Structures are given as C-alpha cells and as structure tokens.
Amino acid sequence: MQSGGPRDQRPSIPQRVPFFYGWIILAVSALAIFISSPGQTFSVSIFVDHIIADLGLSRSTVAGLYTAGSLTAGAAVVFVGRLLDRYGARIMLTAICILFGFAAVWMSSVDSALHLYIGFALIRALGQGSLTMVPTTLIATWFIRRRGRATAIGAVGGAIGAAVFPILIHHLIVQEGWRNAWMVLAFIIWAVLLLPAVLLIRKSPEAVGLRPDGQSTVKAGLPGETGTESTPEFSMTLGQSLRTRSFWLLLFAGSAQPFIVTALTFHHVSLLAARGIPAVVAASVFSVFAAMQIAGTFTAGFMADRFANRRVLALGQVLLLATLLWTFVISTTWQAYVYGALLGACGGFLITTMAVIWPNYYGRQHLGSIRGVSTASMVVFAALGPLPFGWIFDLTGSYSSAILVFLALPVACAIAALLARPPRRG
Q1: What 3-state DSSP class applies to 2?
Q2: How many helices (H) and strands (E) in the chain?
Q3: What is the pLDDT of residue 213?
Q4: Is 175 exposed, middle or buried (CB count within 10 Å of its CB: 0-12, 13-18, 19+)?
Q5: Tens digits of per-residue pLDDT, 154-196?
Q6: Within 10 A of 252 (CB to CB), how many other CB atoms are there?
Q7: pLDDT tens across 40-56, in order?
Q8: Could you tell me which of 137, 56, 128, 62 has the C-alpha nearest to residue 359?
Q9: What is the maximal distance between C-alpha atoms in the chain?
Q10: pLDDT tops 60 at residue 77
Q11: What are the start-end ranges of the H helices in 177-306?
Q12: Cβ(22)–Cβ(214) under 8 Å?
C-alpha cells in the first residue's frame, strides 16, 4: 500500500524557517565552541596550582601529565573525525557533550598522577579537540561562499569562553573548592549544549533539502585563492589529501599557533611574574586577550573570503612572531596588556584561517576525516608546547631563552604557508 500523501510532502523544519537554517547551525556551533572552554588551557591553568597543592605533585610532573594526556587526546581526535563522517554531527555532538560532562566529573575526583593523566586526556580529547573540530567542520559544511565570515562568527564562542570561564572558575574555586568547581562545570556543559545539539543540529544542508549558504546552486571554487566561485564543488578523500604536498605543508604551518600560544598561556602567570607583573594583573590580561581574539577572528574571516588563504596564514605567523618579540619589552602594566592583545589577536587570526583553509582546499564530503587528522596535529603540538618552555625555565630561571629558541618556528611556518598552494583539481 502506498504511504505517500500530502503529509509526506510537507517540507522539513529547516526548510520552513523564514531564513537560511545554516544560521541556526552556526549559533549552535558557536555555543559548542564556547562550552569547549573547560578543556582549554586557559581554563586548566586556573586549576594547576590547586591540583599541585592537593595531590602533592611537582609542577613539572603536572605539566608532563598534561602533555601526555594531550598527546593521547590527539590520537583520539583522528578517530572522532572518522566517526563524524560516518554518523553525522548531531549524534557526535550529543555524545561528545555527554561524555565531556562526565570527564569533568572525573576531574573532580582525581587522587593520583594516573587519574590526573586520564582526566587530562579526556577533557583535551572531548573539549579542546572534539568540541573545536566538530563545530568548525559543521560550519564549513553549511557555508561555502560565506565560509570565512561564518567561521569567524562561530569562533566568537571561543573568545567569549576565554573571557568568561577563567573568571568563573576562579570564583567557583574560591567559593566551593577546585573539586566542586569541576562538578559545577559538568552540569554547565550538559545544561548549555545537550538540548541544542539534540534538537537543532542537522548533518548538512543537502540532508534536509537545502543548499550551502542558502543558494539555489552549489558553487565552490576557492574563494580565498581565485576570488571567484565558478567551478563545481569537489571533494578529496583523506587518502587523496594525504598524497598532496599542500596537506603536509599546512599541517606544519598550523603547528606554531597551538605550540607557542598554548605554552605562553599555560605559563602565563609565571611568565608575567618574571617580568614584574602581579598575578592579579596577569589574570585581568585574559579579558584583553579575549576581546582581541574576537578582533583577530573577524579580521581573518573576512580576509579568508577575499584573499589567498595561504597568504593570510603567513600573515598570521608574522603577528605571532611580533607577539614573541614583545615579551622581551614587558616591564609595566600597559605593556602586559599589549602583550595580551597581541596574543589574543594572533590566536584568533590563525585558528580561523586554519579552520577555513582545509575545506577550501579539500572540500566538504570527507571533511570530518581530514579535520580529524589536522585537529589531532593541533592537539599534539599544543601538548608539546608547555613542557619545553617549562624545562628551559627550570634550567635557566628565565623564559627568554625558550622564546629565543622558538622564534624560528613562526618564520618557518610562514614559509610553509606560502608554499602550500591549493591542490590541483583534475
């Protein structure tokens, strides 16, 4: 018996809303990036001294466990990317939200180095890795022509998180203790993201009868490379992408930001203290950091839609180099705030550019797997950053030597970015 009828022909909810449903997807994606904050270094750094005091571990031990946990998380994110291609964003974002909340619960109960390592691995894989990769991949799936700007809007969630969560966590620790603070964060994660993920997320515009950007036809091209959108959309598999020279150049070009910015953020209070800046001022610098991260994010988003993405990426490396050089002149409060502004701007600029360049170069169809590898690389470099900075500080009593050693990294990454031309389509 035929089941078709007028009821079956009704358009889906995403088709019935009076505007492009991708804007709802973008809002939920920004919310997901915002709620990734408990797994980000700027949040974890607020807990570090309390964990050291409670568990009786040395600072180098905690830094080493953080590195090991983040490296483990990097491997896990590759798997998450493959699952994203297979099951879609709604299932994956819902599962990640639930598990991330339980990871925060785990952190509230750690009582040994092993438990702390497991906790770091969980919050980094689910928070910093997955809740960055899945939302940015989803945005890139729903937007092509406006991809840079949409990615910038989504990234504002991360900048707001950087402004809100360190202050919130500090308050929770003072009022309730660091263990109860993690419990509160677990319920915040579930309350903020779970229902929007379940009710509002859809895998792709095509899955609900729509087109990217709300257009009537799909045109892709490389908006950041050619300035036109006249060629049909194409996609590469992960295997095909791995065989291109640009893939490996982009992986390397994306290494400086997570490596250096994570290191500077992890040692933020200590680095500024070595320059004579009080801890209370160091904490307030995060507010400037967050504001300028938004500025860097939007600047990169608009530039990525108008100029060759590899040149935008190289420009971000120049900004990162300027940030490192500025650390040598910090001696007053205003210079500390300028440092925070530079650090936030270059971080937002580079994160946004990297999020846009992967779909622009390799398409949408297998983007989860591709972003799984690129995000894993980002997590690994972020994991490696704090440890050498800490080791060099322990050996020399100064961060200056570490900064001098790693000045070459953004320079090399800028060169790699310029060499990373879009893969040939044939």
Answers
A1: coil
A2: 21, 0
A3: 86
A4: exposed
A5: 988 988 898 889 889 988 998 999 999 999 999 999 999 999 9
A6: 18
A7: 988 998 898 899 899 99
A8: 137
A9: 81
A10: yes
A11: 178-200, 238-242, 245-253, 256, 262-266, 268-274, 279-304
A12: yes
Helices 367-384 and 59-87 pack at an angle, to 10 degrees, of 180
DSSP 126-180: IIIIIHHHHHHHHHHHH-STTHHHHHHHHHHHHHHHHHHHHHHHHHHHHHH-HHH
More confident residue, 105 or 208: 105
Structure tokens at 110: 């750690």
| 264 vs 59: which has the higher pLDDT | 264
Confirm or reject CATH 3.90.1640.10 for domain 20-205+236-419, answering yes or no: no
pLDDT of residue 97: 97
Mean pLDDT in residue range 112-136: 94
Contacts of range 328-336, beta carbons closer than 8 Å, 24 or more positions apart: 328/400, 328/403, 330/272, 330/275, 330/277, 331/275, 331/276, 333/277, 333/281, 336/272, 336/275, 336/277, 336/281, 336/282, 336/285
Q: What does pTM read for this prediction?
A: 0.81
Residue type, 329: V
- CA torsion sign, 224 to 230 to 233 to 234? negative
Domain ranges of the chain: 20-205+236-419
Mean pLDDT of all residues in 245-249: 96
Between CA 341 and CA 159 the distance in angstroms is 12
pLDDT digits (tens, 9 = 90+) for 4-38: 444 445 667 788 888 899 999 999 999 999 999 99
A 10 A CB-CB count for 1 gives 2
Distance separating alpha carbons of residues 135 and 267, to the nearest angstrom? 28
